[in-house]
Batch of 3 targets.
Target 1
Amino acid sequence: MTDIGAFNEKLVLQTIRSAPQGIGQSDVVRLSHLSRQAVSLITRRLMADGLVEQAGRRISGPGKPHTLLRVVADARLAIGVHLDPAHIAVVICDLAARPVARTTLAPPTEDPRADLERVAAAIAELSRSLGASVPAPGEGEPSTHRRLLGIGIAAPAGLDADAGILRDPPWIPGWRDVPVVDALSAVTGLPATLDKDTNAALTGEIWSRHLETSQTVLYMYVGHGVGSAVSGGGRVHRGGTTQAGEIGHLPIGRADQHCICGRHGCLCLYTDAHVLVGAAHDAGVEVSESSGTTAALEALSAAAAAGSAPARDIIGSHAGALGEAMRILAGVHDPQRIIIGGPTWPALRDVGEAEVRDALGDWLASSGGVVESSHLGDDVGAIGAASLFLEQELAPGTVAPGTA
């Protein structure tokens, strides 16, 4: 991208992007703390590169009307790939992290090479459908419209984000020590970056909703297992080895079950997806795993909505345990906002959200904080993955993990 690596250009672009309805140049100067001359010069470059356009005029007092600027959302696109045990989700997002194309593939197998070839074929097909462009060797810069930046990859831990390697992801057999960043870059010709699905999901929330950077945000990720992520100052805290937020073995104060780790009452004993499916079978609730765990949880949710007391109790128990973990983590992180999301949460939300709020009642009353469900749906992992690459390319001062 033309000069987009410069910190000031990223700062101006991000300032304009944070005002989707348009922002005057004087406001960009005020918010970026750059000189008017610098902002004017950078804005002209961004407009020439197709990233920014004029968005009408605004009258705010005497004098000339202010020309509004806004980002051209589809000028640049990022691909998000979520390697989830239940499926592989692939999306292409614009600069606002809005999906403009998406597809869902069968779950990862024990053949990573074949799986990545499936992903590459899906990316190629989605790109063709959009008319998206990518630089080809010897062809120079592609069109300024719908230019593909690269790929963000989200996956369960453990992984080595700096090296771009999946080390030992749970529930994905055959993917041990797979250099997924280099491998996917090799078959697509695009740069890629890797992070945990929990971190990706929170990045997607921050990027797509322009959450206030002054807020501390706690994200609860509900998938095959439960994980968490936390951000402060608009940046996700990843820890020293990208393993922050691994809470499956967080004791939640229950002594009725013994975990293989040696403790009692670990969160995973009550919230892993297979626990809910097993409880449904034991209670006589009709759920079939032949179509996958997500479909089984959707059947459980449908049974609850139809009035099945056992189904409601199973989801309520899951949400109660989730709420206890959130209460503990709220005491540790002191967030102003808690977001619950992940690929299986949409199926559990209707019953589960009220139970979570009950468990957090004291915290809500004393902190004035906000608890809400994610607005990104069950593709949050893939949308978050695309947001990882957008943040890496376009946010000022970012340090990219695991980039090829």
Target 2
Amino acid sequence: MAPRHLNAFQGSKVRLAAPCPEDCMRLSRFTDSYDYLRNLDTDIAVPLTPDETGSSAVRRDNGFEFALRTLEDNRFIGFTALYRIEWNNRSARLAIGIGDDKDRGKGYGSDALALIIRYGFHELNLNRIALEVIEYNEAARRAYLKAGFREEGRQRSAVLRDGTHYDLISMSILAEEWSTQTKLPLAFQSTHAQGAKQNEDHSDSRLVAAEGSALSLLNTKGTENSPVQPRIGVGAVILNERNEVLLVWRNRQPEQYTWSIPGGKVDPYESVETTVIREIKEEVDLDITIDKLLCTAETIRPEQQEHWISVLYSTRVIGGIARNLEEGGAIGEIGWFPLDDLPSPLASFAVPGLEAAKKLHLYSED
């Protein structure tokens, strides 16, 4: 059987290309931007000459660097690299930079991340890719979470900028996690990832099972000829030390004008676990960790052409103070409510998760 070939150098918006001398000139001009340098790393911000940028520095550090070029007009927009490779440990570090403000927020970075991660796991046969991001670089952190990276820890107050200390966040993605997320095969199997699945409270096996049960529901509803296709969402039951749950008032569909748990939809190639962590950060500015899978919930409203299958988790806060980041938009207000005295009306998709949380946290205390 002929092998299936994937173009490891070309995505949907950008491609990975060999750096050329002209690219080093452009990279040098990028470093004239103070904001670019301060988001790129923790070094002292200083403009670089063309000789100080480019692949030569990465090669000296046992790495692989690529220029990022747009598919639309073959324009150079930045770089990405895998460096500090430890072949004996099959691990590497990742760096990426998009130079101009006008090229950010267009999906170029996410596409480039998907390409370089796939290159690392498929071409270099790595098992672990790691990176660091400064606490205030929220756009990058969200992109890494969406790509499947997990936060491993924080170097507290490791970065000093303008008189304020910020944490340096360590993140990584393992080959098996990436394979599960993208459904692409690997040439090897990591024994550590299997052990982690057995030891974690919210093991990947249960998460994959939750995804599988949701997808099986999709396949049994006979939606082949329907103009409306079922969508997968996530929700988080977030409790504080007083057994109060965080609810948000929805200004928009679905479930408009109801109190709901925060959450959102799963994007293509994004795991449900990654989605719930990202959505909570984007909606209410909280860093959370997953305690356990509560249940799945299905919402079918033919009259509104809605069909949602939601995976609901019990979670806890590990950082931040709840605040409404979508004020005036999808969320009208947020508030903490006693789990045994909830407001009404409640979003129907949230009810099974809240009832499961009551059984877990209230009735078990009796």
Target 3
Amino acid sequence: MGRTMASKKRKASEAVAREEEASTSGGSKSPEELQKESNKGAARGKRVKAAKPKPEPEYFPEKRNMEDLWQAAFPVGTEWDNMDKIGEINWSFSNLENAVEEGGELHGKTVYIFGSTEAQMLAVNGEEKVVLIPVVVAVVSPIPPSDKIGVKSVQREKEDIIPMKAMKMAWVPYIPLEDRQSQVDRLKTQIFTIGCTQRRSALKLLKIERVKQYDYCLPYLQPLKADEDEDDTVVNIMFPLEPPIVCDFDWEMDDLEEFTGELISEETLPEDKKDEFKEFVKEQVRERRKLQREAKEARKKTIEDMDPETRSAFENMKLYKFYPDQTSDIPDISKVKVSYINRYYGKAHFLR
């Protein structure tokens, strides 16, 4: 009996002790405070990821219908190594686009377009440097101006007139952007450009002489009128010495004996090379006169063989030469614009 009572008292005192311990450790906190602590514990258990900011949408300017017309015209005569230099500046030809769009001076006309480049010394970011300026020539004609290409340069003695297809070039229809989902054969385009299918990646498989031909190409046009230098009496002399003698000789104005004597007195030409030099000059003059005579005969025959429609097309052909727009993105080209196209086409009727 006494042992049972003692056991009950001990259990009662242990219960009181547990209650006091609970009271000192927060047992007296309100339900709200206990809920907050519970929420804190839950927050510590879960890592909340910060929301990523949504990227700003990119807006690209809408492409113009004929924005790439100037690029579709192969830059004939530009060295392959220089092709990438054209893209170093943000060129634009909205003047060309406006000309062929509705309301433009070339709209509704059949136009044949080819490109080329002109190297000029220009100020770029305060520094003088050589810039390759792209230019575009538009030929207004009911028929293609020519299906041939001229291969001529200062370095080449002989001039070759060869078919465009021999250089993998041809007149191809230009399709404006908004029509490129249509079938080409159903389109009635009036714009044609010189295209070239020669792949740059395949150039390494060609002989150097073949690759260099592209550097010397010029769009060809059989002139109805005499070429500017067809009656020129000046020949360029490069006599093979070390160093070579480079000079111009006019067979109408210069006396060969006096001309040679002056070179000897200036110690440019050795005395023992006098006769050899004179014979060299005579041969250059003979070759030049032969080429001039052949050019006249070829032009005469071409005119005689032309049907009236073709001849009328050539006589009424109009040439437009376009330079890039003058914008803040490009150097000042206002002082380097010229109407001259090449030795076959001569000068443009209109400069833009």
